[in-house]
């Protein structure tokens, strides 16, 4: 079987409306949308459009969602891959796959390339040399750096990468002309959780007793992904109980269930 190297989405429907909270991050990526939509406006004054930005933050906070929304807002193709798949699935061919990816994106430019979990390929070189596949990873990383350096000023491909461990990344990645911008994507505060609930409650048949303020207060520490899970889980619980709408109790049960899941996950990690 032929493993998929990367996903290509030429008709991204995600927009900033789907991304709740994250006002600062949205403002920063709005600039990237403008570069992609109207590059000449910037280059004709001699400016260089950035080649890459790093989205940094805990799991499930909307990094992938935000990157996709950039492509959706700019109406450009979205090429995506995950660093961990890359290292696991493409032993021996990582570098050539990176070359293919950039070639495709350049042909379809303007475009976004999104690399999730870039730490899997972008860890500082020469450390943790016990994995055996380290040469492979280094070759892949070197190819990525080469590709980014090779972009001309008018290539019009912007590479977004996500990580929750910016501290382990090879400093070479952050050098000027590579991922020289960092955009922080944090866990939502109570007001942002409210906004995230609003987004994920949109498709749900809600009972009149549902109170978004209450739900946001019940979910400290939850990421956007956790909240999306709560909403879906609540709908499934309500359906299982033969209800016509999803009510407060279904949400409380869903919150308990998600907290249970999070506790289990944390136990495994520590
Ligand atoms: P990871 O680091 O685990 O890859 P991530 O930061 O890329 O996580 P996403 O994959 O973007 O997180 O989020 C998963 C899902 O959680 C999204 O598809 C969306 O449904 C929901 N979600 C996360 N953050 C938000 C947000 N700010 N607004 C609305 N939905 C969100």
Write up what this structure looks like.
It is a single chain. The chain has 270 residues and is an alpha/beta fold. The chain is built from 11 helices and 6 strands. The chain has a 6-stranded mixed sheet, with helices on both faces. The longest helix is centred in the C-terminal third of the chain and has 22 residues, at 248-269. It is globular and about 55 Å long. 39% of the residues are buried. The protein binds adenosine-5'-triphosphate (ATP). Adenosine-5'-triphosphate binds at residues 19-22, 59-65, 116, 162, 164, 196, 199, 224-225, 228. Adenosine-5'-triphosphate (ATP) is lined by residues 19-22, 59-65, 116, 162, 164, 196, 199, 224-225, 228.
Rg result: 20 Å
Q: Averaged pLDDT, please?
A: 89
What is the CA–CA distance across the termini? 36 Å
Ligands in the structure? adenosine-5'-triphosphate
Percent range for helical residues? 40-55%
**For the report, how would you describe the main beta sheet?**
6 strands, mixed
Structural class: alpha/beta
Characterize the overall form: globular
The beta-strand count equals 6
Uncertain runs are none
Proportion of residues in extended strands: 5-15%
Helix tally equals 11
Give the strand order, joined by hyphens, for the main sheet.
1-3-4-5-2-6
Instruction: State the order of secondary-structure elements, H for helix, E for strand.
Output: EHHEHEHHEHHEEHHHH
Write the layout of secondary structure elements.
Layout: E1 7-9, H1 23-37, H2 39-43, E2 52-56, H3 63-74, E3 78-82, H4 83-89, H5 94-107, E4 111-116, H6 119-122, H7 134-150, E5 157-163, E6 179-184, H8 190-201, H9 212-217, H10 224-240, H11 248-269
Parallel strand pairs: 2-5, 2-6, 3-4, 4-5
Antiparallel strand pairs: 1-3
This protein binds adenosine-5'-triphosphate.
């Amino acid at each position: 079987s032929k493993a998929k190297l990367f996903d290509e989405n030429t008709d991204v429907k995600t927009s900033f409306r789907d991304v709740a909270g994250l006002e600062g991050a949205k403002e920063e990526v709005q600039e990237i949308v403008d570069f992609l939509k109207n590059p000449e406006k910037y280059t004709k004054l001699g400016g260089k459009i950035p080649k890459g930005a790093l989205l940094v933050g805990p799991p499930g906070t909307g990094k992938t969602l935000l990157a996709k929304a950039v492509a959706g807002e700019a109406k450009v193709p979205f090429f995506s891959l995950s660093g961990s798949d890359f290292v696991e699935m493409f032993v021996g061919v990582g570098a050539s796959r990176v070359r293919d990816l950039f070639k495709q994106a350049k042909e379809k430019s303007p475009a976004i390339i999104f690399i999730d979990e870039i730490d899997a390929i972008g860890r500082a070189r020469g450390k943790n040399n016990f994995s055996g596949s380290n040469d492979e990873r280094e070759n892949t990383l070197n190819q990525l750096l080469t590709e980014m350096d090779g972009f001309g000023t008018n290539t019009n491909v912007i590479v977004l990468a996500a990580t929750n461990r910016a501290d382990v990344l090879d400093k070479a990645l952050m050098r000027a002309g590579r991922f020289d911008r960092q955009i922080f994507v944090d866990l939502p505060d109570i007001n942002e959780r409210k906004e995230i609930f609003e987004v994920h409650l949109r498709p749900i048949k809600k009972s009149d007793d549902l109170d978004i303020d209450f739900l946001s207060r019940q979910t400290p520490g939850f990421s956007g992904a956790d909240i999306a899970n709560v909403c879906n889980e609540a709908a499934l619980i309500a359906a299982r109980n033969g209800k016509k709408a999803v009510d407060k109790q279904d949400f409380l049960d869903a919150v308990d269930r998600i907290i249970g899941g999070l506790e289990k996950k944390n136990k495994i990690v520590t």
